[in-house]
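<goal> How does this chain fold?
<body> The protein record starts here
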Amino acid sequence: MKNENKKIEKEMKNENEKIEIEKQENVVSELMRRLLIGTRIMRRREELYLDLDTAAELLELPVDEYKNYEYGQTEIYPDMLLKLAQVFQTSPNYFFQDLYHLQK
């Protein structure tokens, strides 16, 4: 009976470790996704020869809030993504072009 309990405990520990690793991988994937999208936003802004202040003004955002999008510190929701695409004269898909390798 003791061996049976130890075996179950070991299996549970292994399962918990797998779950924890998966959570960490998801966090890393989310951060990478934000950074890649932010890089695309910055690249497009620079292609249009816009500085940070002008881009923020066009998007009707405080400069610090806009910077957070470029630096991947803030999640970009669909309404902001559409606004970015309109102001930066591109399609929303443009911002996702580098994300294909993050898919599982």
